[in-house]
Specification:
alpha/beta, Rossmann fold, Alpha-Beta Plaits, 5-stranded parallel sheet, elongated, Diguanylate cyclase, CheY-like_superfamily, Rev_trsase/Diguanyl_cyclase, Sig_transdc_resp-reg_receiver, phosphoprotein
Protein backbone atom coordinates (compact mmCIF):
# COMPACT_ATOMS: atom_id res chain seq x y z
CA UNK A 1 0.00 0.00 0.00
CA UNK A 2 1.28 3.47 -0.85
CA UNK A 3 0.89 6.50 1.38
CA UNK A 4 2.43 9.73 2.64
CA UNK A 5 3.57 9.62 6.27
CA UNK A 6 4.69 12.58 8.36
CA UNK A 7 6.85 11.76 11.41
CA UNK A 8 6.96 14.40 14.16
CA UNK A 9 9.70 13.61 16.68
CA UNK A 10 12.48 15.69 18.24
CA UNK A 11 14.89 12.71 18.53
CA UNK A 12 17.00 12.33 15.34
CA UNK A 13 17.75 8.69 16.19
CA UNK A 14 14.05 7.81 16.35
CA UNK A 15 13.41 9.70 13.12
CA UNK A 16 16.16 7.81 11.30
CA UNK A 17 14.90 4.41 12.42
CA UNK A 18 11.35 5.19 11.37
CA UNK A 19 12.42 6.80 8.10
CA UNK A 20 14.60 3.86 7.05
CA UNK A 21 12.02 1.26 8.07
CA UNK A 22 9.00 2.95 6.48
CA UNK A 23 10.96 3.81 3.35
CA UNK A 24 11.70 0.12 2.98
CA UNK A 25 7.93 -0.43 2.88
CA UNK A 26 7.72 2.06 -0.03
CA UNK A 27 5.94 4.82 1.86
CA UNK A 28 6.72 8.47 1.11
CA UNK A 29 8.22 9.86 4.31
CA UNK A 30 8.39 13.42 5.64
CA UNK A 31 9.92 14.40 8.97
CA UNK A 32 9.96 17.36 11.32
CA UNK A 33 11.86 17.66 14.60
CA UNK A 34 10.43 21.00 15.73
CA UNK A 35 6.93 20.58 17.15
CA UNK A 36 6.18 24.27 16.62
CA UNK A 37 6.48 23.71 12.86
CA UNK A 38 4.30 20.60 12.87
CA UNK A 39 1.08 22.26 11.70
CA UNK A 40 2.92 24.08 8.93
CA UNK A 41 4.43 20.77 7.78
CA UNK A 42 1.02 19.10 7.78
CA UNK A 43 -0.29 21.76 5.40
CA UNK A 44 2.80 21.52 3.18
CA UNK A 45 2.93 17.72 2.93
CA UNK A 46 -0.80 16.76 3.22
CA UNK A 47 0.08 13.37 4.75
CA UNK A 48 -2.17 10.31 4.85
CA UNK A 49 -0.89 9.44 8.35
CA UNK A 50 0.94 11.27 11.14
CA UNK A 51 3.28 9.49 13.57
CA UNK A 52 3.56 11.80 16.56
CA UNK A 53 5.85 11.75 19.59
CA UNK A 54 4.35 12.94 22.89
CA UNK A 55 7.34 14.35 24.78
CA UNK A 56 8.83 17.27 22.86
CA UNK A 57 10.23 20.64 23.97
CA UNK A 58 8.13 23.81 23.66
CA UNK A 59 4.95 22.00 22.64
CA UNK A 60 3.84 18.46 23.46
CA UNK A 61 2.46 15.95 21.02
CA UNK A 62 -0.84 16.15 22.86
CA UNK A 63 -1.04 19.89 22.17
CA UNK A 64 -0.12 19.37 18.51
CA UNK A 65 -2.84 16.73 18.18
CA UNK A 66 -5.37 19.00 19.89
CA UNK A 67 -4.52 21.90 17.56
CA UNK A 68 -4.70 19.77 14.43
CA UNK A 69 -7.98 18.04 15.24
CA UNK A 70 -9.57 21.39 16.12
CA UNK A 71 -9.41 22.35 12.44
CA UNK A 72 -12.73 21.62 10.73
CA UNK A 73 -11.23 20.14 7.55
CA UNK A 74 -8.57 18.03 9.26
CA UNK A 75 -9.11 14.30 8.69
CA UNK A 76 -5.61 12.78 8.82
CA UNK A 77 -5.23 9.86 11.25
CA UNK A 78 -2.72 10.41 14.06
CA UNK A 79 -0.79 7.62 15.75
CA UNK A 80 1.17 8.41 18.92
CA UNK A 81 4.61 6.84 19.42
CA UNK A 82 5.78 7.55 22.94
CA UNK A 83 7.93 6.35 25.81
CA UNK A 84 5.07 7.37 28.09
CA UNK A 85 3.47 4.02 28.80
CA UNK A 86 1.15 5.13 31.60
CA UNK A 87 -2.48 4.18 31.14
CA UNK A 88 -3.61 7.79 31.61
CA UNK A 89 -1.26 8.99 28.84
CA UNK A 90 -2.57 6.36 26.44
CA UNK A 91 -6.18 7.24 27.25
CA UNK A 92 -5.47 10.96 26.86
CA UNK A 93 -3.98 10.39 23.41
CA UNK A 94 -7.00 8.37 22.33
CA UNK A 95 -9.41 10.91 23.81
CA UNK A 96 -7.74 13.61 21.72
CA UNK A 97 -8.68 11.69 18.59
CA UNK A 98 -5.61 9.56 17.82
CA UNK A 99 -6.35 6.29 16.05
CA UNK A 100 -3.66 4.44 18.02
CA UNK A 101 -0.97 4.80 20.69
CA UNK A 102 2.21 2.72 20.56
CA UNK A 103 4.74 2.75 23.38
CA UNK A 104 8.48 2.86 22.84
CA UNK A 105 10.40 0.71 22.25
CA UNK A 106 7.89 -0.60 19.72
CA UNK A 107 7.95 -3.75 17.67
CA UNK A 108 8.55 -2.90 13.98
CA UNK A 109 6.30 -5.72 12.78
CA UNK A 110 3.46 -4.39 14.93
CA UNK A 111 4.13 -0.85 13.72
CA UNK A 112 4.07 -2.03 10.10
CA UNK A 113 0.67 -3.66 10.58
CA UNK A 114 -0.84 -0.73 12.48
CA UNK A 115 0.39 1.75 9.85
CA UNK A 116 -1.12 -0.43 7.15
CA UNK A 117 -4.46 -0.55 8.98
CA UNK A 118 -4.51 3.23 9.56
CA UNK A 119 -3.74 3.97 5.91
CA UNK A 120 -6.35 1.46 4.76
CA UNK A 121 -9.00 3.13 6.93
CA UNK A 122 -7.93 6.56 5.63
CA UNK A 123 -8.32 5.34 2.03
CA UNK A 124 -11.77 3.90 2.78
CA UNK A 125 -12.92 7.18 4.34
CA UNK A 126 -11.52 9.14 1.39
CA UNK A 127 -13.44 6.93 -1.05
CA UNK A 128 -16.63 7.25 0.99
CA UNK A 129 -16.34 11.05 0.96
CA UNK A 130 -15.77 10.98 -2.78
CA UNK A 131 -18.84 8.77 -3.25
CA UNK A 132 -20.92 11.04 -1.02
CA UNK A 133 -19.89 14.09 -3.05
CA UNK A 134 -20.85 12.33 -6.26
CA UNK A 135 -24.21 11.29 -4.80
CA UNK A 136 -24.86 14.81 -3.52
CA UNK A 137 -24.04 16.18 -6.96
CA UNK A 138 -26.47 13.76 -8.60
CA UNK A 139 -29.28 15.03 -6.38
CA UNK A 140 -28.82 18.52 -7.80
CA UNK A 141 -28.05 17.66 -11.43
CA UNK A 142 -30.58 17.19 -14.22
CA UNK A 143 -30.19 13.61 -15.42
CA UNK A 144 -30.75 14.42 -19.10
CA UNK A 145 -28.62 17.52 -19.64
CA UNK A 146 -26.05 17.37 -16.82
CA UNK A 147 -26.88 20.96 -15.84
CA UNK A 148 -28.07 21.91 -12.37
CA UNK A 149 -31.76 21.28 -11.66
CA UNK A 150 -34.51 23.25 -9.95
CA UNK A 151 -33.64 21.78 -6.56
CA UNK A 152 -30.19 23.35 -6.74
CA UNK A 153 -31.71 26.56 -8.05
CA UNK A 154 -33.72 26.80 -4.83
CA UNK A 155 -30.49 26.49 -2.84
CA UNK A 156 -28.80 29.06 -5.07
CA UNK A 157 -31.66 31.52 -4.59
CA UNK A 158 -31.22 31.22 -0.83
CA UNK A 159 -27.46 31.78 -1.10
CA UNK A 160 -28.07 34.84 -3.30
CA UNK A 161 -30.47 36.32 -0.74
CA UNK A 162 -27.93 35.64 2.03
CA UNK A 163 -25.14 37.29 0.03
CA UNK A 164 -22.95 34.16 -0.21
CA UNK A 165 -23.50 33.90 -3.98
CA UNK A 166 -23.32 36.96 -6.23
CA UNK A 167 -24.38 37.39 -9.85
CA UNK A 168 -24.90 40.40 -12.09
CA UNK A 169 -26.97 39.03 -14.96
CA UNK A 170 -29.41 36.27 -15.85
CA UNK A 171 -30.43 34.81 -19.18
CA UNK A 172 -33.19 32.49 -20.33
CA UNK A 173 -32.29 30.29 -23.30
CA UNK A 174 -35.13 28.56 -25.11
CA UNK A 175 -35.16 26.22 -28.11
CA UNK A 176 -37.02 27.52 -31.15
CA UNK A 177 -39.89 25.29 -32.29
CA UNK A 178 -38.90 22.51 -29.94
CA UNK A 179 -42.36 20.94 -30.04
CA UNK A 180 -41.95 20.53 -33.79
CA UNK A 181 -38.64 18.73 -33.19
CA UNK A 182 -40.33 16.21 -30.89
CA UNK A 183 -43.36 15.85 -33.14
CA UNK A 184 -41.41 15.42 -36.38
CA UNK A 185 -38.36 13.49 -35.25
CA UNK A 186 -39.33 11.88 -31.95
CA UNK A 187 -38.39 12.42 -28.33
CA UNK A 188 -35.06 10.62 -28.60
CA UNK A 189 -33.87 13.23 -31.09
CA UNK A 190 -35.39 15.93 -28.93
CA UNK A 191 -33.44 14.63 -25.92
CA UNK A 192 -30.25 14.56 -27.95
CA UNK A 193 -30.75 18.17 -28.98
CA UNK A 194 -31.39 19.21 -25.38
CA UNK A 195 -28.14 17.56 -24.31
CA UNK A 196 -26.20 19.18 -27.14
CA UNK A 197 -27.54 22.66 -26.35
CA UNK A 198 -26.81 22.15 -22.64
CA UNK A 199 -23.22 21.23 -23.50
CA UNK A 200 -22.89 24.38 -25.61
CA UNK A 201 -24.19 26.57 -22.79
CA UNK A 202 -21.86 24.90 -20.29
CA UNK A 203 -18.88 25.47 -22.58
CA UNK A 204 -19.62 29.20 -22.93
CA UNK A 205 -19.96 30.13 -19.25
CA UNK A 206 -17.35 30.19 -16.50
CA UNK A 207 -17.28 26.92 -14.57
CA UNK A 208 -15.82 28.79 -11.58
CA UNK A 209 -18.26 31.68 -11.32
CA UNK A 210 -21.41 31.11 -13.44
CA UNK A 211 -24.22 28.59 -13.00
CA UNK A 212 -26.37 26.95 -15.68
CA UNK A 213 -29.68 25.20 -14.96
CA UNK A 214 -32.26 23.24 -16.88
CA UNK A 215 -35.17 25.43 -15.90
CA UNK A 216 -37.82 23.21 -17.42
CA UNK A 217 -38.57 21.43 -20.70
CA UNK A 218 -36.44 23.07 -23.39
CA UNK A 219 -35.67 26.17 -21.32
CA UNK A 220 -32.37 26.91 -19.62
CA UNK A 221 -31.46 29.52 -17.00
CA UNK A 222 -27.95 30.93 -16.77
CA UNK A 223 -26.75 33.10 -13.87
CA UNK A 224 -23.70 35.15 -14.77
CA UNK A 225 -21.20 36.51 -12.28
CA UNK A 226 -20.11 39.35 -14.54
CA UNK A 227 -22.48 41.42 -16.68
CA UNK A 228 -19.67 42.92 -18.79
CA UNK A 229 -19.56 40.04 -21.24
CA UNK A 230 -23.13 38.70 -20.92
CA UNK A 231 -24.18 39.81 -24.43
CA UNK A 232 -21.01 38.29 -25.87
CA UNK A 233 -21.81 34.99 -24.13
CA UNK A 234 -25.40 35.05 -25.38
CA UNK A 235 -24.22 35.70 -28.95
CA UNK A 236 -21.69 32.88 -28.75
CA UNK A 237 -24.42 30.48 -27.58
CA UNK A 238 -26.68 31.44 -30.49
CA UNK A 239 -23.86 31.05 -33.03
CA UNK A 240 -22.78 27.70 -31.61
CA UNK A 241 -26.33 26.34 -31.68
CA UNK A 242 -26.64 27.59 -35.27
CA UNK A 243 -23.74 25.32 -36.18
CA UNK A 244 -25.27 22.35 -34.36
CA UNK A 245 -26.37 19.67 -36.79
CA UNK A 246 -27.97 16.41 -35.73
CA UNK A 247 -28.01 13.44 -38.09
CA UNK A 248 -31.58 12.18 -38.56
CA UNK A 249 -30.93 9.79 -41.43
CA UNK A 250 -28.12 9.10 -43.93
CA UNK A 251 -27.22 12.36 -45.68
CA UNK A 252 -29.89 14.26 -43.74
CA UNK A 253 -28.92 16.83 -41.14
CA UNK A 254 -31.26 19.05 -39.10
CA UNK A 255 -30.32 22.54 -37.94
CA UNK A 256 -31.60 24.21 -34.77
CA UNK A 257 -31.70 27.62 -33.12
CA UNK A 258 -32.41 29.28 -29.78
CA UNK A 259 -33.85 32.55 -28.52
CA UNK A 260 -32.38 34.31 -25.48
CA UNK A 261 -33.82 36.73 -22.96
CA UNK A 262 -31.25 38.64 -20.94
CA UNK A 263 -31.47 40.92 -17.90
CA UNK A 264 -28.65 42.68 -16.10
CA UNK A 265 -31.01 44.34 -13.65
CA UNK A 266 -30.04 41.87 -10.95
CA UNK A 267 -31.68 42.58 -7.60
CA UNK A 268 -30.59 39.84 -5.15
CA UNK A 269 -33.47 40.68 -2.80
CA UNK A 270 -36.11 39.78 -5.39
CA UNK A 271 -35.20 36.76 -7.47
CA UNK A 272 -38.76 36.41 -8.79
CA UNK A 273 -38.38 39.79 -10.45
CA UNK A 274 -35.10 38.70 -12.06
CA UNK A 275 -36.76 35.63 -13.54
CA UNK A 276 -39.74 37.71 -14.63
CA UNK A 277 -37.49 40.19 -16.46
CA UNK A 278 -35.51 37.43 -18.19
CA UNK A 279 -38.76 35.71 -19.17
CA UNK A 280 -40.18 38.96 -20.53
CA UNK A 281 -37.01 39.53 -22.56
CA UNK A 282 -37.24 35.95 -23.90
CA UNK A 283 -40.87 36.47 -24.87
CA UNK A 284 -39.84 39.64 -26.70
CA UNK A 285 -37.20 37.67 -28.63
CA UNK A 286 -39.75 35.05 -29.63
CA UNK A 287 -42.40 37.58 -30.58
CA UNK A 288 -39.85 39.38 -32.76
CA UNK A 289 -39.21 36.30 -34.86
CA UNK A 290 -37.07 34.09 -32.61
CA UNK A 291 -33.35 33.29 -33.10
CA UNK A 292 -32.19 36.48 -31.39
CA UNK A 293 -31.38 38.19 -28.11
CA UNK A 294 -33.54 40.67 -26.26
CA UNK A 295 -32.38 42.58 -23.18
CA UNK A 296 -34.57 43.92 -20.44
Amino acid sequence: MSGRILIIDDEPHNLNILRIFLNSLHYEIFTVEDGTKAQEMVKETTPDLILLDVMMPEISGFEICKNLTAEAEFDTPIMFLSANAQKEDILQGLRLGAVDYLTKPFDLDVLERKVEIALHQKAKIKNLKKDNKQLAKLVYVDALTGLYNRAYLDITIRMISEGTKKFQAAMMVDMDYFKDINDNFGHLVGDQVLREVAAIIQSKVSSDHDLAFRYGGDEYLVLLHNEANCVEIANSIIKEVDSLKVSLAPNKLQEFSVSIGLTNNFDPTCFEQIISQADAALLGAKNSGRHQIKIR
